[in-house]
Amino acid sequence: MEVILAKQAGFCFGVKRATHLAFEAADRKGETYTLGPIIHSPQVVQRLEEMGVKVLGDVNEADAGTIIIRSHGVAAEELEAAVSKNLEIVDATCPFVKKAQEHVASLSQAGYDVVVVGDADHPEVQGIVSYATGKVYVVGCGDEAAKLPRMAKIGVVAQTTQSFENLKDVVNACLAKGGEIRVYHTICDATAVRQEEAKALAGKVDCMIVIGGFNSANTKRLAEVCSELLPRTHHIETASQLDPTWFSGVEKVGVTAGASTPKWLIDEVLDRIAEIDREKIG
Ligand code: F3S
Question: Which residues are noted in the entry as [4Fe-4S] cluster-binding (predicted)?
Answer without folding.
Answer: 12, 94, 188
